[in-house]
Amino acid sequence: MQPINCYLGVSAILFCIGLFGVMTRRNAVGILMSIELMLNAANLNLVAFSAYGPKHGLTGQVFAVFVITIAAAEAAVGLAIVVNLYMNAKHVNVDQVNLMKW
Amino acid sequence: MTGQGVAFAVLAAITIISALLVVTIKNIVRSALFLALSFVGVAGLYILLNAEFLAAVQVLIYVGAITVLMLFAIMLTQQIMSAKISQTTEWFWLALPMALAMLATLIFFFAMRTYPVNPAPDALAVGTTMPLAEALLKPYLLPFELASFILLAALVGAIVIAREEKPGATD
To answer: How many beta carbons lie within 10 A of that of residue A51, not counting itself?
Structure first.
């Protein structure tokens, strides 16, 4: 099998791509997609340690299941907010949404 | 190079290249489709890590549900589909070195220490679905039920938030 550092490396690269996307994407849907990438990177870490850890167990996989659940809830609520923002502001550009900025 | 090594390299390349396209490509619809491809790559990595149930869940929920939800949101918000408007903020040249610095830090710490490699003996032959179900319904029963409650709350919340409010409507 691959050493675990390979999986950790892929996970780190995926996380940083998602981070970059969150910082640079202009529309809210793009930001949500980048957040999903970051959550996937975290899941990959959990599953890798579940398979390679010093003690074998399924705790990492159970945790990954919960992360997937929360990610689904987050995507649903986030996209509902995006749709509501579009109905109110007619755009979804996060750099133009500064209604609450003093 | 073993077959597993080849599979790992191919899946990692699929995942990373399509993730890069997700954050850089102009057309947001194509971006969502590449996001699905990236999720498929991660599902393949799960299979390599003996987590076949999670791979199936990944394909069903991420590729099947979340990406389609993203596409629905893109199509409901027509304006962002036009490729004329810029898709990136003015922070591009600040975000790039920050992300690279984060990556360098993570890789440095991952490469610095060695983790005990203790692969499970032939776990794929046994299968992890049944032990996972037992773990979810025995020691993790309370978080499991709580997760379903959170899903219900998110469902109701999403409907309430996304509903179009009619002026003068009473409920």
So the answer is: 24
Structurally, how many domains does chain A consist of?
1
Give domain B1-89's CATH number out of 1.20.120.740, 1.20.120.1200, 3.40.190.10, 3.10.50.40. Answer: 1.20.120.1200
**Cα–Cα distance list, B36 to A37, B53, B136 (Å):** 10, 18, 27
What's the ipTM?
0.91
pLDDT, one tens digit per residue, over B79-99 is 655 555 566 777 788 888 999
Q: What are phi and psi of B29, to 5 degrees?
A: -70, -45
Cβ-nearest to B132 among A54, A62, A66: A62
> What SS3 class is residue A25?
strand
Whether A32 is covered by a domain: the verdict is yes
Q: Which structural domain range is residue A72 located in?
A: 4-89
Residues of B in contact with A81 (CB under 8 A): 161
Give dist(CA B24, CA B36) in Å, integer.
15
Domain boundaries, chain B: 1-89, 126-171
Measured between CA atoms, how close is A51 to chain B, in angstroms? 6
Full-model pTM: 0.88
With CA atoms as reference, report the closest residue to A6 among B53, B126, B7, B36: B7
Q: Is residue B156 less than 8 Å (CB to CB) from chain A?
A: no
Q: Does residue A95 belong to any structural domain of this protein? A: no
Looking at residue B166, its amino acid is K
CATH code of the domain covering residue A75: 1.10.287.3510
| d(C-alpha A8, C-alpha A2), whole Å | 11
